[in-house]
Amino acid sequence: MALALEDRLAVTELIALHGHLVDEGELDRADEVFTPDVVYDLSDFGQGEVVGLTALTRAALTLGAANPVAHHVTNVVVEEVAEGRVRVRSKGLGIMADGSCGSVTYEDVVVRTADGWRIGRRRVVARRVPLNGLGQGS
Q: Domain SnoaL-like: where (predicted)?
């Protein structure tokens, strides 16, 4: 069965909500975006996996002023993998306080809960080279 349009919209809005809440410092509302046992994989940044909402909030507060001042998400692609479970890929841009910008790919597993769709796992992959290195030599 194909994922209903209403569910696609809800999932896309969920992905966008993350940036609004983080940028406003509303970390106490993380449960509106993530499951309580979320796995937030920052291995590509040398930080390993952060597990659970409390640990995720603590990590953001520890990073402090080194957090982006703005999170922007675009190019959201939703793929149903099972009833009540979707895989979502999106592109993220982080704007830093000094004006510099970085790009990531978010790879999410989103699940339907009693409270609506929530991200149960997020892997953040830094975009560091054009074309993912294709044509860059061997």
A: 4-123
Predicted local distance difference test score (pLDDT) of residue 133 = 87
Q: Which domains does the chain have, with CATH numbers?
A: 5-127 (3.10.450.50)
pLDDT recorded at residue 138: 59
CB–CB of 86/11 below 8 Å? yes
What residues contact residue 107 under an 8 Å CB cut-off, 6+ apart?
Answer: 87, 88, 89, 122, 123, 124, 125
CA-based R_g, the chain, Å: 15
101 contact partners, CB below 8 Å, separation of at least 6: 93, 94, 95
Residue with token string 């560091």: 128
pTM score over 0.85: yes
Q: What is the mean pLDDT of the segment spanning 50-70?
A: 96
